[in-house]
Specification:
Blueprint: H1 2-33, H2 39-51, E1 60-67, E2 72-79, H3 84-96, H4 101-110, H5 113-116, H6 118-124, E3 127-129, H7 136-144, E4 148-150, H8 162-167, E5 172-179, E6 182-190, H9 200-230, H10 241-258, E7 262-269, H11 272-279, H12 281-298, E8 304-309, E9 312-318, H13 322-338, E10 354-361, H14 368-384, E11 390-391
Parallel strand pairs: 10-11
Antiparallel strand pairs: 1-2, 1-6, 2-3, 4-5, 5-6, 7-9, 7-10, 8-9
Helix pairs in contact: 1-2, 1-9, 2-4, 2-9, 11-12
Length: 392
C-alpha cells in the first residue's frame, strides 16, 4: 500500500514539474508576442516558439493566414532546416552559444536567413482556396476549426495534397489559429529530421500556443489596418500628404546610401476649378477618385502614388533617373488625356488633362524640400506653356 502511494506521489510530482515547464514555455512565448505589433515579427515569434528546443521543439513549422476577401489560405512564413546536415549545424550553434528564445527572436531582426530560405519562399507562393470540396488539408483545418493529427497511417489519405508533397513528411499536426472563435490562420508542424512521434502532450501544447497566437495575429492585423488608415487619403485610397513626406524622405535616404537615382512627379489637373464650379464638388470628387485609380493602375509596383492635396498628386519613382521619369510622366499624361472622364466636355478643350512637373536626385536637389520645390516650379512651367505638358 505504501509503495503504491509513493508511486502515485512520484507520478503527481512529475506531472506538476512538467506542467510548470510547459507554463514557463508558454509564458515566455506569450511575453515575446507582446513586444511587437508588426505582423512579420509576430509570425516569426510564433514559429520560433513552435520549433525552438527551449520552446515546443518541433523540427519544422509553417504558418498560413486566412484571406477572407479573396477566399484563400495564404502561406506567410516557414521555419525549419532543409535537411539533417543543416539541422545539426543549427542545433549545434544554438547549444554552443547557449541561445535562449530571446536570442533566437532578436536574431530575426538582424538576419535575412529565414525570409530568404528556399523553404520559406516556397511556402509563401502557396495560395489555397477555402472550399469544402477539393480545398485539401488546409481548407479542412479552416472550415472544421479543429486540430488534425495525421499519423503514418492516415497521412496517406492526403498524399496528393500540395502541402504534403512539399513537406514529404510521415507525420503532421495541423492546428487552427482562432480569435473570437473565428479561424484566422493555420499552423503546421512536424519532426521530419528526428522522426520523433508527435505525442498528446505535444498537441496540447501546440493548441495552447495557437490560442494565444490567433489573438496576437488579430491584434497585429488591426494595428496594421489602423496604420494604413492613418496614412491613406480617405477619398482616393492613395497615400496622404503626411505619408508622402515620410516616403520621400525614406527613398531619398536610400538613394544617397546606394548612390542610386530617385525621381518625383508632381501632377495637377488642368482647369479643375471650372469643373468643380460648374458641376459641384461631389462631381469633382468622382473625377479625383477616377484619376487616382488610373494613376495607381498605370504606375509600377515599386512607385508610390500619393494625393498631395486638392487636385494635385505626387508619384515617387525609386531607382529612376530623369530620362526614365520623363518617359513615365509622358505616358501617364497621355493615359489621362485618352481616359473618358464623365462630363469632361464642359472643359475648355472638351477633355480633362493634367500638367506634370519633374525633379530628380541629385541633379535637381538633394533634400525632399528641394525636389518638391523643383517639381513645383516645373509644374508651373508646364501650366504656363499651355497645360497638358510635362516639364522638368
Amino acid at each position: 500500500m505504501c509503495s503504491f502511494i509513493m508511486e502515485e506521489l512520484t507520478k503527481i510530482k512529475q506531472e506538476v514539474e512538467r506542467a510548470k515547464i510547459e507554463l514557463a514555455i508558454l509564458y515566455e512565448i506569450s511575453n515575446a508576442m507582446r513586444t511587437t505589433l508588426k505582423l512579420d515579427e509576430i509570425l516569426y515569434i510564433i514559429l520560433t516558439g513552435v520549433t525552438a528546443h527551449m520552446g515546443l521543439g518541433f523540427n519544422r513549422a509553417i504558418l498560413f493566414l486566412v484571406n477572407e476577401r479573396d477566399g484563400l489560405i495564404e502561406g506567410k512564413m516557414a521555419i525549419g532546416p532543409k535537411n539533417g546536415e543543416e539541422a545539426s549545424r543549427i542545433w549545434t550553434r544554438v547549444e554552443q552559444e547557449q541561445m535562449d528564445l530571446d536570442d533566437l527572436i532578436n536574431a530575426y531582426k538582424v538576419s535575412k536567413d529565414v525570409t530568404e530560405s528556399g523553404f520559406n519562399q516556397q511556402v509563401r507562393t502557396l495560395k489555397i482556396p477555402i472550399r469544402e470540396k477539393n480545398g485539401g488539408l488546409l481548407a479542412l483545418g479552416v472550415l472544421d476549426g479543429m486540430p488534425l493529427h495525421l499519423t503514418r497511417e492516415t497521412i496517406q489519405n492526403y498524399s496528393l495534397d500540395p502541402i504534403i508533397q512539399i513537406l514529404k513528411t510521415n507525420e503532421l499536426i495541423v492546428v487552427p489559429l482562432k480569435a473570437k472563435d473565428k479561424v484566422n490562420g493555420i499552423i503546421l508542424a512536424d519532426n521530419f529530421i528526428t522522426k520523433k512521434s508527435i505525442t498528446k502532450d505535444d498537441i496540447r501544447m501546440l493548441i495552447m500556443l495557437a490560442n494565444q497566437a490567433g489573438l496576437a495575429i488579430e491584434n497585429s492585423q488591426l494595428y496594421e489596418k489602423t496604420v494604413i488608415r492613418a496614412h491613406t487619403d480617405t477619398l482616393t485610397d492613395l497615400y496622404n500628404h503626411g505619408h508622402f513626406h515620410y516616403l520621400l524622405h525614406t527613398e531619398l535616404d536610400k538613394a544617397k546610401a546606394n548612390s542610386s537615382p530617385v525621381s518625383l512627379i508632381m501632377l495637377d489637373i488642368d482647369n479643375f476649378k471650372i469643373y468643380n464650379d460648374t458641376l459641384g464638388h461631389q462631381a469633382g470628387d468622382r473625377i479625383l477618385k477616377t484619376l487616382a485609380l488610373l494613376l495607381k493602375n498605370q504606375s509600377r509596383k515599386m512607385d508610390y502614388v500619393c494625393r498631395y492635396g486638392g487636385e494635385e498628386f505626387t508619384i515617387i519613382l525609386p531607382q529612376t533617373n530623369k530620362k526614365e521619369a520623363f518617359l513615365i510622366a509622358e505616358r501617364l499624361r497621355t493615359d489621362i488625356e485618352k481616359q473618358a472622364f464623365i462630363n469632361e466636355e464642359i472643359l475648355p478643350n472638351k477633355k480633362l488633362t493634367a500638367s506634370i512637373g519633374l525633379s530628380s536626385f541629385s541633379e535637381d536637389g538633394s533634400t525632399p524640400s528641394e525636389l518638391i520645390a523643383h517639381s513645383d516650379r516645373a509644374l508651373y512651367e508646364a501650366k504656363h506653356k499651355g497645360k497638358n505638358n510635362t516639364c522638368g
